[in-house]
Amino acid sequence: MALPLTRRTFLLGTGCILIAPVTAHAAKEADVPYVPTPIEVVEGMLDMAGLKAGERLIDLGSGDGRIPRAAARRSATALGVEIDAGLVARARSLTRLEGLEERARFVRDDLFTVSLRDADVVTLYLLPDVNERLKPKLLSEMKPGARVISHAFDMGDWPPDERREIADKHVFRWTVPAVAGGEWRLIRADGSAAALVIEQRYSDVSGTLDGRDIHDPELVGAEFHFIAEGAAYRGKVGDRTITGGDWSAERID
Predict the structure, then answer these.
(1) If you write DSSP's letter for every residue of 92-115 in order, what string do you get?
(2) What are the tens digits of pLDDT across the range 92-146?
(3) For residue 183, is it left (φ>0), alpha (ψ between -120 and 50) or beta?
(4) Which of 60, 99, 197, 223 has its CA 20 to 30 A from that of 237?
(5) Element (H, E) at 223
(6) pTM higher than 0.70 for the full model?
(7) 3-state secondary structure of 133
(8) Which residues are CB-contacts of 235 (< 8 A; sequence separation ≥ 6)?
(9) Which residues lie closer than 8 Å to 148 by C-beta, 6 or more apart?
């Protein structure tokens, strides 16, 4: 875990501690707390993510690069984002020693500004308030179906899809949901239309079809299914459409 400091402490001769604000640039140069994730937990996080060969992993606060290197050994590509220049250099050196440079690389950057749009998996070992601040970015930038894996800390009111104890450590997994909430015009297999209204909070969904409750709704990434009118509806949520086998819906809100 490596976090940028926003305030620096100085020990005075009187024994008092003065807390002084520093600029964002100075914070990049400051010492940062770093707590490495145990190797057993690293491997468990990647197992929990279901990381596949060819997928893209981004590790925010990558420290010595152990998570990106472990991902590269599984034939994924990985990017480590770290604010500490010394840790970035160490991660690059260890990666060269293992011959993994083609699949794992490291940048010195701010985890709040780096793009997450091409990530299949994002891994974190940060702090609760940092996770909370990152949550809107994870939800808005990551594609539906991408996974977020956090060592030790959760995401506040975003409930995890899975929680495990690995080597006595808490590990959490979330699947990024598509934006399904809103009003849709559903076209049935026979060509008739109906009003589909979906209420959404993260991956929890409910709704109505022509004013009657839908049953057993479930949203996993972009995959959405529910039961209504005695029939099962399964489809994939896009930006403005839901595409099913013999039905579809268009967003109207």
Answers:
(1) HHHHHHHT-TTTEEEEE--TTTS-
(2) 999 999 999 999 999 999 999 999 999 999 999 999 999 999 999 999 999 999 9
(3) beta
(4) 60
(5) strand 223-228
(6) yes
(7) helix
(8) 223, 224, 225, 242, 243, 244, 245, 247, 248, 249
(9) 121, 122, 123, 124, 138, 142, 155, 173, 174, 175, 176
